[in-house]
Specification:
single chain, alpha/beta, UDP-N-acetylmuramoyl-L-alanine:D-glutamate ligase
């Protein structure tokens, strides 16, 4: 189980991403570290959010703002230069789905239309779990089970 006190999330992303992380965490092995999550809306608060963080999970566009002494995991929609990328959004009959790419691993996330989590919130949660050392295959298996 992940201690949510170890993860700093801005109020813009906090509650929903926390719920997703908690849903994924029961099914994966992680390394407990202090994580700061940085989205584009956090551009002016980077140093505050990074204080006491072991690892930063940041939107790819913010990568230059993160101190090199902090381990960085980036996320992006469609930019495969990021560490964790979402690609190929599809609208299906009962759900929307998209692929997640991280390193040499790729898998698909299925999000029922009744689910109130956005693709961005899900992507951030996956990036946090990757930053904590979880394998993408394990993350996606747990995530898809949680989202059902």
């Amino acid at each position: 189980m992940t201690d949510m006190n170890m993860i700093k999330l801005s109020s813009d992303t906090g509650q929903k991403v926390s719920e997703i992380i908690a849903g994924i965490a029961d099914g994966v092995q992680i390394i407990p570290e202090r994580v700061a999550v940085l989205t584009l809306s956090d551009k002016d608060r980077v140093s505050t959010l990074l204080s006491e963080a072991d690892v930063a999970v940041a939107d790819y566009e913010l990568r230059q703002l993160v101190d090199p002494s902090v381990r960085l995991v980036t996320f992006s929609r469609n930019n495969t230069s990021a560490d964790v990328t979402s690609l190929n959004l599809q609208q299906r009959e009962t759900c929307r789905s998209f692929e997640v790419l991280s390193g040499s691993s790729m898998g698909r996330v299925y999000v029922p239309y009744s689910c109130n989590y956005s693709m961005d919130q899900i992507l951030i949660a996956v990036a946090v779990m990757c930053a904590l050392g979880a394998a993408l295959d394990d993350i996606l298996t747990s995530l898809n089970g949680f989202l059902k």
